[in-house]
Amino acid sequence: MPSPHVAASDRTALREQLAQLCRHNLDAAPAALPSGWAELDAQLPGGGWPVGALTECLLDAHGIGELSLWLPALRAVTQNRRYAAFIAPPFIPYAPALRQHGVSLERVLIVETETDALWAAEQTLRCAAFGVVLIWPGACPTDKQLRRLQLAAETGRTVGAVYRPLSAARSPSPAALRLKLQADAHGLSIVVHKCRGGRSGMTVRCAHAA
Amino acid sequence: MLWLCIHLPHWPLEALAPPDAAPAAVIVTEQHQRRIVACNTAAEQAGLKGVERLTTALALYPRLRVLERSAAAERQALKRLAAWGYQWSSRVTWSQAQPHAVDYAAALWLEIGASRALFNGYRALLKQIEGSLQHLGYRYRLGVAPTLEGAALLARANRRTAIVRLDRLLDAIRELPIAQLAIAPPIAHALRRSGVETVGALFDLPAASLARRFGPELVLYLDRLAGRASDPRRLYRPPNVYAARCDFGFAVRSAEALLFPLQRMLHEFCGYLRALDVAAQHCAIVLEHERGAGSRIELGMGAPNRDAQRMLALAKEKLLRVTLTAEVRGLRIEAGEFTPPAVRQSDLFSRDADVADELQQAIEKIAARLGGDAVRAVQPGADHRPEQAWLSGSVVAQSGCAAPDTPPPAAPRPLWLLRAPRRLRAAPAIAALPERIESGWWSAPVTRDYYTVRIASGEAGWIFYDRGDGCWYVQGYWA
């Protein structure tokens, strides 16, 4: 219990402590990049993709809307003078389609690699010039490797998206956000599997952009 | 004139660049006796400081790495250091130990009187030079005086006071013992025996009798030291093509062991670039072997560069992936094409410039490890055939080619394109009108009807019916 007669030096120390606590609270509100999907943003703490963190997209099929999900963010980032990277994508990100959706192609980079996807992902995530980095890690990344990516994203204040199979949902991960993606009759159905600082278990639907 | 002398007491050792971790010593053979002339810090810590005879040293520390002194390696290293020093002064000269010298130290002199205005006074200049010198990792002593020999004497004596005026020089060196002077040991011995212990006492003797007793060289040396006689030296001229080498006195078997000398050489190279106010976009690192041409590592940079740390990061990526086929005996850095340095905007756009710089570095690093083709940019292409309607180019090789102004296709396109269309076994169920694409009559003509269908488990595929071969293909996914 601090007594009412605190020495001046103690008082400044207390004041500093208080200021630190306030700062801590400010830090606690996570920075976010709006996903562009109103329903999804409403579920995410901060109202969008967590910045300086990893988001896992868990899915078993290609072509169910896993890229459309990120299109508004890609558009916002590339039009805002930052870069987007595709690390080891399974197919060719098709330039005419990206352009039809308003993505600035001169700010899109594709890294083609079969063996060094995680390393390349780390380099791009760490670089503040990138806004969004979409990663197809190839082999199943270990917990340690994901932690490295998470750390790199924190350093560069970037948004990292890692695409993994649905079976990976069973193993723990340092990612701030984990989404299970599945196709349904109307488009994409998203189950929030894990959400740091928010609730999990909700289902969100996104209609196909195309 | 104001000379800065960089005295390098351990030059015979440092020129051969052995790793610091293990004790190492350099020897010369004189009259069938092998004498240690320099040893590294690890050897000093092992108790070999001041030990002259090799047999004694080996008795104290049997695993000592013993290297033969190489005058050629010392000259090469001095030349590299002179190129580095040229960034602060256009008058650079050096001296190297002669055979059978007492002291195998080397020295580099920079004339800083003319440069001090340019670098905000000589204190700021010295600070800058020392900062850069520490990156190189040589052990050094500095001396500043109006004469070459005066600066060298102050450096040898480790006096860190800068003497700017000639009339103050004699006062400053009077008390120094004559052993610090660069005179032949027999002369110094004879002088000491006749009671001349300090530099001051030597200067008090009449020059004529000194010349008669010890020869005119001693008097000339004293005159040059005091600034009474001119001291012409050959000045260093930077070559147009950079070619620096470092010969090791031993064989290197791992790429990691090359990083230390390489770092030093890159710092010296960047000093040379700064001296000429240019930057390099490309240079080659050659690993020299006992025989053969040596392994060449090409270092390509995204933008003209003269940042040693950045070059080292790139070189590291490449070097650690090289399998050394033979022992490495030396390193070479070669560069012949230089460009004006990229001038960075300072305040207004500095954040943008920083970010662009960081991006460039990240791309360079990835390209260095995965190859220049791995980092690609995409563009729409001017063709109606979907597989031709996009272009991809290496970001590294690209030199500012603008995207062609292609009108986007009217119909929507899928986000994923397969690298090659995949043939479907059965005709899918179609419930929409097709988009007909006919094009490419000049090379590979196609006539295709495109549809969007759900293939399986909700995947939306972009498929076409090829009217040429009558088959169905999937070419993309609506992702």
Describe the protein's architecture and organization.
- The complex is a heterodimer of chains A (210) and B (479).
- Chain A is of the alpha/beta class and 210 residues long.
- Chain A is 31% helix and 26% strand.
- The longest helix of chain A is centred in the first third of the chain and has 21 residues, at 8-28.
- Residues 23-28 of chain A have low confidence and may be disordered.
- In chain B, the strands form five sheets. In chain B, strands 8, 9, 10, 11 and 12 form a five-stranded antiparallel beta sheet that branches. In chain B, strands 15-19-18-17-16 form a five-stranded antiparallel beta sheet, with no helix packed on it.
- Chain B has helices at residues 11-14, 41-48, 54-60, 71-85, 121-136, 148-156, 166-173, 185-193, 199-204, 207-214, 216-226, 256-275, 308-319, 350-370, and strands at residues 3-8, 24-30, 33-39, 65-68, 92-95, 106-111, 141-145, 242-252, 279-288, 295-305, 328-335, 338-339, 375-380, 390-394, 416-424, 435-439, 446-454, 460-466, 471-477.
- The relative contact order of chain B is 0.08.
- Residues 345-349 and 397-403 of chain B have low confidence and may be disordered.
- Chain B is 32% helix and 27% strand.
- Chain B is α+β, with helices and mostly antiparallel strands and 479 residues long.
- Classes of the chains: A alpha/beta (210), B alpha+beta (479).
